[in-house]
Amino acid sequence: EVQLVESGGGLVQPGGSLRLSCAASGFSFGSYAMSWVRQAPGKGLEWVSGISGGGGDTYYADSVKGRFTISRDNSKNTLYLQMKSLRAEDTAVYYCAKDLRAMYFSDRSGFDYWGQGTQVTVSS
Amino acid sequence: DIQMTQSPSSLSASVGDRVTITCQASQDISKCLSWYQHKPGKAPKLLIFDASILDTWVASRFSGSGYGTDFTLTISSLQPEDVATYYCQQCGTLPITFGQGTRLEIQ
């Protein structure tokens, strides 16, 4: 059974940092591209960042470019999102999501598995 | 960025009704389009990928169609468990973008 379990969320002050983790199991983790998707309160889904299966290619939404860093440790089956210079508008539930079939982001498709999400609140 | 416009934004229908949600892309995305069902407090669930392919274990009352810029999600006979918000998502061009969502309720 495929499982994605996020952790690391919490309350942080504006300008602060946080690192999210997503522990994966039930599939060959390094064979699939992964993404982070967030949902701000009362808003829709927003793609934040993606990474290829091998970790060599990373992609970001303009809203987080230069502040967030996505990475993965395939030996630990874990995806990460390092978030710095956090702003109030980064407040959201953050989901990790597995690409349906692609190892490389150029072959991306839909997301067939999602975690339950972790809440990030940026407030003083 | 490719803008994805869903309509309607909200919808109320009766059990057994046929329900249609549309999604329009601001640029040609070929068939790189997925549909998700999202219930509060739950992980989003993939329903349709490649515009028209039903994901595994998804009920056959769901179907998708379209190509290029215009896409449709159809529920052939609405069930109470279908109450949720539905999103389209394009994968044709980065950044990946989602529609604003369609909230579906039972009358």
Task: Describe it.
The complex is a heterodimer of chains A (124) and B (107). Helix content of chain A is 0%, strand content 49%. Chain A has strands at 3-7, 10-12, 18-25, 34-39, 45-51, 58-60, 68-73, 78-83, 92-99, 111-114, 118-122. In chain A, a hairpin with a 6-residue loop joins strand 5 and strand 6. Chain A starts with a strand and ends with a strand. The model of chain B has no long low-confidence stretch (mean pLDDT 97). Chain B has 107 residues and is mainly β. In chain B, strands 2, 4, 5, 6, 9, 10 and 11 form a seven-stranded mixed β-sheet that branches. A four-stranded antiparallel β-sheet of chain B has the order 1-3-8-7, with no helix packed on it. Chain B is 0% helix and 50% strand. The relative contact order of chain B is 0.35. In chain B, a hairpin with a 6-residue loop joins strand 9 (84-90) and strand 10 (97-98). The chains are: A mainly beta (124), B mainly beta (107). Chain A binds chain B through residues 35, 37, 44-47, 50, 59-62, 95, 97, 100, 105, 108-117, and chain B through 32, 34, 36, 38, 42-46, 48-50, 55, 85, 87, 89, 91, 94-101.
Low-confidence stretches of chain A: none
Largest sheet of chain B: 7 strands, mixed
Let me know the largest β-sheet of chain A: 7 strands, mixed
Structural class of chain B: mainly beta
Poorly predicted regions of chain B: none
- What is the element string of chain B, with H for helices and E for strands? EEEEEEEEEEE
How much strand content do the residues of chain B show?
over 45%
Q: Return the average pLDDT of chain B rounded to an integer.
A: 97
List strands and helices in order, with pairings.
The complex is a heterodimer of chains A (124) and B (107).
Chain A: E1 3-7, E2 10-12, E3 18-25, E4 34-39, E5 45-51, E6 58-60, E7 68-73, E8 78-83, E9 92-99, E10 111-114, E11 118-122
Parallel strand pairs in A: 2-11
Antiparallel strand pairs in A: 1-3, 3-8, 4-5, 4-9, 5-6, 7-8, 9-10, 9-11
Chain B: E1 4-7, E2 10-13, E3 19-25, E4 33-38, E5 45-49, E6 53-54, E7 62-67, E8 70-75, E9 84-90, E10 97-98, E11 102-106
Parallel strand pairs in B: 2-11
Antiparallel strand pairs in B: 1-3, 3-8, 4-5, 4-9, 5-6, 7-8, 9-10, 9-11
